[in-house]
């Protein structure tokens, strides 16, 4: 699998232009930018700079948050941007509980309806939607889709145009992971890697560099490949206390080194 | 459901004797002590003080950690203590990854074998073993059994003498929770309550008081009751930043008040 950089990995150090040039400099041929960074640079400039360097856009982060009031406009805009960028998918972080509610069922229904509402435009734009199940510790405030099984059940209901983003950080613990990756098959639209640190000091921003934690990355990678996924493996590390404080060129060098070992 | 106190809720403020007396003073008729506190007080004294106050011992915390070297002796001792205390179950926190390993499968096999090895003694002693699925964020270092479905699959394999402890904190997010509570039926040996705070500032010790978080406690309770559980609801709150800093009598009053509302 070729390496891609999710720009969140160096977001404290670099803006999008710097991240694109960093990828080019380090021979990293895939990139997954975040929408706020695209907006800061300007969509047209982002498209042109990414093309100039011949990078594959492995995804756009992110659509989703269907439990927020402005979900429809935001997601239609995200689809449009993903189309302009030629992104291989739009990653959906679906949103947690409806604010003020404790009703997980209602939130999950809202997510289903939200994706269904956006899907026709996504299909028209040629942008596959990648539902990313997030770790259960993020169920309340980030995403109420928390297992690959649940995400695939939703894909089954929604039909063509929808798949999953498998991020090892969110799913590594799941006793049904092998089974569900097999079930996912060609619906795996993106594969994200990092590592689970012990101890983990923060629920959001304490992810580890591949090899520094406890995730059996070669094993999960073998399942993903056996399922027929032939895309990039994309490094996405949120790390307030470590990698966001380092020289970003060192971060990219380390990503390349570590990925070559898994 | 009657209220029980898991003594971890006031462990910074009170030793076991104080917790027993606190329960009696507040009219709380169930208690689940931790083994280190029982050891500090002395097993015989603990038994006699609990009997004197007529408390039901809803469980003993905890056995498990089958991935640690001394698992057999520790668990046999725990069974013996649970028997002496007349505990309704021995709660098993099964242990995470085998130290130094990334092999979740091997760890889960070790857990299965460990429980199977201890089970005959537990049955002889009349002590049901309650497998507690722990939140996936604790998979690496505390328990590699992380969903109720997985715990029940294990119960199915192990047969008589084994059930589950359902703690809302660990399972509230699970899309299959209703289904699996129904499946569990009479195998629910303990029911623990607290709440999930948003934001959660620590993976271990930032649990909320019932009502302060996002868990739909009346809903989960209704499922547990429908499954045939007729035991106590036991409050277990680890709270470094809040409840462990408060007057323990205030903590117990608050537990009573809040439980009456869910």
Topology:
Two copies of one chain form a homodimer.
Chain A: E1 3-6, H1 16-26, E2 30-32, H2 35-41, H3 43-52, E3 56-57, E4 60-64, H4 71-85, E5 90-93, H5 104-125, E6 129-131, H6 148-158, E7 162-167, H7 168-171, H8 177-184, E8 188-193, H9 217-226, E9 233-235, H10 248-261
Parallel strand pairs in A: 1-2, 1-9, 2-3, 4-5, 5-6, 6-7, 7-8, 8-9
> What does the largest sheet of chain A look like?
9 strands, parallel
Global mean pLDDT of chain A: 98
Number of E-state strands of chain A: 9
Return Rg of chain A in Å: 17 Å
Binned, the helix content of chain A reads 40-55%
In one word, what is the shape of chain A? globular
Q: Give the strand order of the largest sheet of chain A, numbering strands 1, 2, ... along the chain.
A: 3-2-1-9-8-7-6-5-4
Oligomer: homodimer
Number of H/I helices of chain A: 10
Proportion of β residues of chain A? 5-15%
What is the chain-wise order of helices and strands of chain A?
EHEHHEEHEHEHEHHEHEH
Keywords:
14% strand, nine-stranded parallel beta sheet, homodimer, 10 helices, alpha/beta, 43% helix, 262 residues
How would you describe what is shown here?
2 copies of one chain form a homodimer. Chain A is α/β, with parallel strands linked by helices. Chain A is 43% helix and 14% strand. Chain A has helices spanning 16-26, 35-41, 43-52, 71-85, 104-125, 148-158, 168-171, 177-184, 217-226, 248-261; strands spanning 3-6, 30-32, 56-57, 60-64, 90-93, 129-131, 162-167, 188-193, 233-235. In chain A, strands 3-2-1-9-8-7-6-5-4 form a 9-stranded parallel beta sheet. Chain A is globular, with a radius of gyration of 17 Å. The A-B interface holds A 97, 102-104, 108, 135-137, 139-141, 144, 146-147, 150, 172-175, 196, 198-200, 203, 213-216 and B 97, 102-104, 108, 135-137, 139-141, 144, 146-147, 150, 172-175, 196, 198-200, 203, 213-216.
């Amino acid at each position: 699998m070729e390496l891609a950089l999710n720009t969140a990995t160096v977001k404290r150090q670099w803006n999008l232009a710097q991240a694109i040039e960093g990828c080019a400099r380090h021979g990293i041929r895939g990139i997954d930018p975040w929408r706020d960074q695209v907006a800061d640079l300007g969509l047209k400039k982002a498209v042109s700079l990414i093309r100039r360097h011949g990078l594959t856009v492995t995804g756009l982060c992110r659509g989703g948050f269907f439990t927020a009031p402005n979900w429809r406009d935001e997601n239609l805009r995200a689809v449009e941007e993903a189309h302009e960028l030629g992104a291989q998918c739009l990653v959906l972080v679906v949103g947690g509980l409806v604010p003020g509610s404790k009703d997980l069922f209602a939130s999950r229904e809202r997510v289903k309806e939200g994706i269904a509402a956006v899907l026709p435009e996504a299909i028209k734009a040629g942008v596959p939607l990648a539902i990313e199940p997030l770790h259960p510790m993020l169920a309340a405030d980030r995403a109420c889709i928390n297992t690959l099984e649940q995400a695939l059940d939703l894909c089954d209901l929604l039909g063509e145009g929808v798949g999953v983003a498998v991020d090892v950080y969110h799913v590594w613990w799941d006793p049904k992971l092998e089974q569900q990756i097999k079930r996912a098959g060609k619906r795996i639209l993106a594969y994200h890697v990092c590592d689970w640190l012990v101890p983990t000091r923060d629920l959001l921003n304490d992810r580890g560099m591949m090899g520094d934690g406890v995730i059996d990355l070669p094993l999960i990678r073998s399942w993903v490949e056996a399922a027929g996924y032939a895309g990039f493996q994309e490094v996405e590390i949120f790390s307030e206390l470590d990698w966001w404080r380092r020289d970003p060129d060192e971060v990219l060098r380390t990503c390349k080194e570590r990925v070559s070992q898994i």
